[in-house]
Specification:
heterodimer, A: two-stranded antiparallel ribbon, 6 helices, B: eight-stranded mixed sheet, 25 strands
């Protein structure tokens, strides 16, 4: 079993190294530094629901959901129910949108974000492992470590904040179902937003 | 920050803050046809070379000139990005058609792959000017939204207006419209394209592409978003005129289309060709398992809709239960059930004096029938949840099941004819158990009745079973349970009211004759099953089955004949077992052999069904009639030989130039299963009549009459 896992990891590393996370399967394990320099692993949260949110403060679609308080509201609702919320920034360090850890932490604080931690992923390893394409791009991992949702924050792929009110918040629905022990009715959707600003491989 | 700065400078360059607030954060309003942002210059343009008059060509379009390295997106934008949206406001009566998207380019960004356009782009839209349009000028308003990206992405929008004189030609952009038109992908005439889902990839085969394309590298642009892994390069090859490619699927796939339009293009081509990929295998379920610790059954509701794209169900659950009950009761009259049931009714005469025994037997029989239906249904639902494209009657799609049923019917027939007696064959303990436990016997009779009844689709059953497989498991199983209850109901009623049972004739010599007579419907059923198997595996398979049945009959006689002495039985029995073994060894590989594709009864007027043929014929303005049928479906065969063979009906079809297609479901066929599911059915027969225009087909009843076909044809529009 161990050998098989190692082989699989090697194959993935040597292949395109892209989009390995699959809904219904085990979520890729990771360890990354948060904005305060602490190591955060997915394994730390075994037994809990974990939400991953790809974020880039420079992206107008991220601004749509933060300026309208939609993202913070979703974060607050989730974390109040014991869900772990990890924001991930995969913007490459040489990109204009890049924010160093302290600046990113300050931005999140200024937004009154309710994320459990904000992770730095400037080399894009975490983003590539999850196949994150857009900001925002949302994932939900269940207590058993299975990926149960991947996709958009909501059902209206526009930049207009006025559309939030009439959109279905896929993350709220999926989390509600997962917390109630039900299967997620809409397990994957197309994320919309800006492309993730990955570093060159 | 860079992004915000460019954004603000962009906003500073365009007008009217009020309009910006009204139409979103990044709107640019213009009083004229041009909107300029730092990334693009967008212009509303028109082409009306003969003026804006009824019946004359009128084209509108948004011309987007991108700054260097900036791009906007195709209708399938790929991994990220969003398609450009055009909302025209036109005077009443004028209709803007769909955007004619030019062939896109691949736009890689890091590990992502998008589809879109750089440099100068025109998104043209055809407009129909209605008869009676007499205005002197046409005022066009356009609200457009586009996402423009380089290393950053900026959602932009603009309001455009254009004033066109009706009587004068507008042709300044003629060349632009012509070149955009030349870049719009055209349907690949005569191309056939299929795709099968295999281990995380779509295995695509396309024939009928232009001969000049052979040997070249093709680019693959799916119009459907969220299916393929966009950044992966397909592994493709040419074998003669067939292009084959293995296109990896998106691990986070969001769609499971049964047909996928794809634009194929090769270097140096202005426009690609559109092929319609027919996906011939079922898609694995998208649904993720829920929280840990949920049993498999709880996942059924999530995965079932997946197997049934957009099921259209006209029935409520209550109606479905009633229809199932009625359908079950009618099953008793079907030729495959009647002999078994009549056997059982004979039992009433024995027990007419013992009310309690009669009632218990009736209840046990009912339990046997209902439990068997539920078990079979659970198997069906389980397999469907596992991604198999199956429907009711699926068990008869397997030659092995048909062969076993033929053997079972042969044995019942021989037993009725008196060739052998069970008492001699069964170990004495089993025989004694049957006598001691009449209820177990009744229960097993119920199981047997379902085994032989399952292929017979009675009227009323089609719609309710179609609904059943789309329901959550508990409700679905309750529909099947209602079906079983309906089937057992007449028997249960007779056993509950002895007055009914007493109406039956008294036991006597006639019973022995009746029993023998009943052997013949059994043998007739065997003939039917041999024919079904012949359809599935060819004449060799049918011959193998017949040989097996002969060996079985010999074994039954040798081991069970009441006239044989013990020594003779020993000798014949040993020979029979050897014969059986030889027959099995010879027959089994033949039976496993899947039939060579053969279209049973391919009369000239009927052609094999495919979704594309239906679409194609309708596009040509022809109505289409589809006969969804199977060799093992008695009702289907009855209709095929009566109504659908009648000269009057065929003349009716011909008079209206109806394309006749036959979808043969004798063997498993995922495309047909998917189509049945789309119509809300899970079994055959289904008779579907498509008008050239309009949404879905009209479904005719399962027992088809010439009058019904005639009135359905008369109701077609345009006649």
């Amino acid at each position: 079993m161990k050998i098989a896992l190692v082989t699989a990891a090697l194959l993935l590393a040597s292949g395109s190294g892209w989009a390995t996370a699959t809904v219904g399967q085990r979520a890729p394990a990771f360890t990354a530094l948060d904005t305060s320099g602490k190591n955060v692993s997915l394994a730390d949260f075994k037994g809990k629901h974990v939400v991953l949110e790809w974020v880039n403060p420079g992206c107008p679609y991220v601004q749509k959901h933060y300026d309208s308080q939609n993202m913070q509201g979703t974060q607050a609702e989730a974390t109040a129910k014991g869900v772990v919320w990890l924001a991930v920034n995969s913007t490459a360090a040489d990109h204009g949108d890049y924010k160093p850890p302290a600046a990113l932490a300050q931005w999140m604080q200024g937004q009154k974000a309710k994320a459990t931690a904000t992770l730095m992923d400037a080399d894009g390893k975490l983003g590539r492992a999850y196949g994150a394409r857009s900001t925002p791009h949302m994932y939900i991992v269940n207590p058993a470590g299975t990926l149960v949702y991947a996709g958009a924050i909501d059902s209206k792929p526009t930049s207009n904040p006025a559309d939030i009110a009439s959109a279905t918040n896929h993350v709220k629905v999926a989390l509600g179902e997962a917390l109630a022990g039900k299967p997620v009715s809409v397990p994957s959707t197309r994320a919309y937003g800006c492309s993730v600003k990955y570093s060159a491989m | 920050m860079k992004q915000l700065q460019s954004l603000f400078s962009g906003l500073a360059m365009v007008a009217a803050a009020a309009a910006m607030a009204a139409s979103g954060p990044l709107a640019a309003a213009a009083t004229g046809p041009v909107v300029t942002t730092p990334q693009v210059r967008a212009e509303l343009v028109a082409h009306a070379p003969e003026g804006v008059l009824p019946g004359k060509p009128l084209w509108l379009g948004l011309k987007i000139e991108h700054q260097r390295d900036w791009h906007t997106y195709w209708k399938n934008p790929g991994d990220s990005g969003l398609p450009t949206k055009l909302n025209f406001t036109l005077p009443e009566g004028l209709q803007a058609g769909p955007v004619q998207w030019p062939t896109p380019s691949r736009l890689p960004t890091g590990p992502l792959m998008n589809y879109g356009y750089a440099d100068t782009l025109l998104l043209p839209v055809a407009v129909t000017v209605p008869q009676g349009f007499k205005a002197e000028a046409l005022d066009v308003k356009l609200q457009a939204e586009w996402l423009v990206c380089k290393d950053v992405c900026i959602p932009e929008s603009g309001e455009f207006s254009l004033h066109l004189p009706a009587q004068a030609a507008t042709a300044a952009h003629g060349a632009l419209f012509a070149s955009a038109q030349a870049a719009v992908p055209q349907a690949a005439q005569g191309a056939q394209a299929t795709a099968a889902v295999q281990e995380g990839a779509l295995v695509v085969q396309v024939t009928g592409l232009p001969a000049t394309w052979q040997g070249q590298t093709l680019q693959f642009f799916p119009e459907t978003t969220g299916v393929i892994h966009n950044a992966a390069v397909p592994q493709a090859s040419w074998q003669g005129n067939t292009w084959s490619a293995r296109v990896p699927l998106d691990p986070q796939r969001t769609d499971s289309p049964s047909a996928m339009p794809v634009v194929l293009t090769t270097k140096g081509q202005a426009a690609g060709l559109v092929v319609q990929l027919a996906v011939t295998t079922p898609w694995p379920a998208l649904a993720a398992p829920g929280a840990a610790g949920i049993e498999a059954t709880a996942q059924l509701p999530a995965s079932l809709p997946e197997a049934n794209p957009a099921p259209a169900n006209p029935l409520s659950l209550g109606l479905a239960l009633l229809a199932a009950l009625a359908g079950g009761a009618l099953l008793n009259l079907m030729p495959c059930v009647f002999p078994v049931l009549s056997l059982k009714v004979l039992g009433f005469s024995h027990h007419a004096h013992d009310r309690r025994a009669l009632l218990l037997g009736g209840l046990a029989y009912t339990a046997g029938v209902v439990l068997s239906f539920v078990a079979l249904a659970a198997l069906l639902l389980g397999l469907r949840a596992g991604g198999e494209q199956l429907g009711w009657g699926f068990q008869l799609q397997s030659p092995a099941v048909v062969a076993v049923l033929a053997g079972l019917f042969t044995l019942i027939g021989l037993n009725l004819a008196g060739v052998f007696e069970l008492g001699s064959v069964l170990p004495s303990s089993v025989a004694a158990a049957r006598v001691r436990h009449p209820m177990v016997d009744a229960l097993l009779t119920g199981v047997l009745a379902v085994a032989v009844a399952s292929p017979c689709t009675a009227p009323f059953m089609g719609a309710s079973l179609g609904l059943a497989v789309t329901l959550p498991p508990v409700q679905a199983l309750s529909v099947f349970a209602a079906l079983g209850l309906g089937m057992a109901l007449p028997y249960l009623a007779a056993s509950s009211w002895p007055a009914l049972a007493r109406l039956l004739p008294r036991p006597g010599v006639w019973m022995a004759h009746f029993k023998t007579v009943m052997a013949f419907p059994m043998f007739a059923t065997v003939v039917w099953l041999v024919w079904v198997l012949g359809q599935q595996t060819g004449i060799d398979g049918a011959a193998a089955l017949l040989a097996l049945l002969v060996a079985l009959a010999f074994a039954a006689w040798a081991l069970g004949s009441p006239t044989l002495g013990p020594r003779a039985r020993g000798g014949f029995g040993a020979a029979a077992l050897v014969l059986m073994a030889v027959a099995l060894m010879w027959a089994v590989p033949t039976l496993r052999h899947e039939a060579v594709a053969q279209v049973p009864g391919a009369e000239a007027s009927w052609q094999p069904w495919s979704g594309e043929r239906v679409a194609q014929a309708r596009a040509e303005g022809r109505p289409v009639f589809v006969d969804f049928t199977a060799a093992w479906c008695v009702t289907c065969q009855f209709n095929k030989r009566s109504t659908l063979a009648s000269a009057e009906v065929m003349a009716d079809f011909k008079a209206r130039n109806v394309l006749l297609l036959r979808a043969d479901w004798t063997k498993r066929d995922a495309a047909i299963s998917a189509e049945l599911a789309r119509m809300g059915r899970s079994g055959v027969p289904v008779y579907a009549l498509y008008a050239p225009a309009g949404a879905g087909p009209t479904l005719l009843s399962e027992i088809l009459s010439p009058a019904e076909v005639h009135s359905a044809l008369a109701a077609l529009p345009g006649h």
